[in-house]
Amino acid sequence: MTAAPAEPVIRIAGITKSFGSHQVLKGIDLAVGKGEVVAIIGPSGSGKTTLLRCINFLEEYDGGSARIDGVEVGYKDTADGRRRRSDRELARIRVEAAMVFQQFNLFPHLTAAQNVMLGLVKSRGKSKGEARQIAEKWLTRVGLAAKFDALPSQLSGGQQQRVGITRAVAMEPKVLLLDEITSALDPELVGEVLAVVQELAAEGRTMILVTHEMAFAREVADRVVFTDQGRIVIDAPPATVFDDQPNERLRSFLSRFAAFHRPR
């Protein structure tokens, strides 16, 4: 007997989101399987970050469904209709979709190790001793063994972002959400952060990343999703997106990135 296909780790169905009269997401459908790396690209204002934030309900979606491992994230069905989940329920679900932000969002009064430990203690119920061991293991892996007790102000931008990635990965989430994680970095620091992400991808971690690093998306992603005006226009393997460029709007977008401009 053939086994039934596994449920995607992330399943987005018909997600809509408006800010006032401006509709940012216009019915997004997206499924991401275990171990897949999906890169989301597109012009500013196309809904990329909003979509990412809807997945773990940092942004409340108006319509549609977002599920992590089959569990609806923001709402639940009751006898009285769809209801927003309690903050306690949301916190329990949200840890399965850990997010790394553009602006590192570290607590400035906590050391690198303490920033990583906080979620492990508060959300995963680890003892401080166990959380410290996990934090030290992961900080060592990303090249920050000498920075366990450094405050964010004592770290470079690239080091702060590596702490941010470590904080997310240490929680062992079902999916990592990476939102333009190199956009706030000086160019010479971008490589050290992308190298960490590439290692995580090679380990088979499920990731959705919003990025303007086209060469990186091409190299690390299993699929590339191109969004425009609140809709997914293309969802295809990197070779199709970057070589075949089947859509005029996509070709126009990629022409801004010299490495991918090919006269037709």
Give me some keywords for this one:
single chain; six-stranded mixed β-sheet; 9 helices; 34% helix; globular; disordered C terminus
Would you kindly provide a brief summary of this structure?
The chain has 264 residues and is of the alpha/beta class. Helix content is 34%, strand content 25%.
What does this structure look like?
It is a single chain. With 264 residues, this protein is an alpha/beta fold. Helices cover 34% and strands 25% of the residues. The protein is built from nine helices and twelve strands. The chain has helices at 48-55, 87-94, 112-122, 128-141, 157-169, 187-202, 214-220, 238-244, 248-254, and strands spanning 10-19, 22-32, 37-41, 63-68, 71-72, 75-78, 81-84, 97-100, 175-179, 207-210, 223-228, 231-236. The strands form three sheets. Strands 8-9-10-3-11-12 form a six-stranded mixed beta sheet, with helices on both faces. It is globular.
Q: Helicity, in percent? A: 25-40%
Number of helices: 9
> Strand order of the main beta sheet, please?
8-9-10-3-11-12
Low-pLDDT residue intervals, each spanning 5 or more residues: 260-264
Beta-strand percentage range: 25-35%
The helix/strand class is: alpha/beta
Number of extended strands = 12
Please give the oligomerization state of what you see. single chain
What is the global morphology? globular
Following the backbone from N to C, one meets helices and strands in this order, namely: EEEHEEEEHEHHHEHEHEEHH
CA radius of gyration:
19 Å
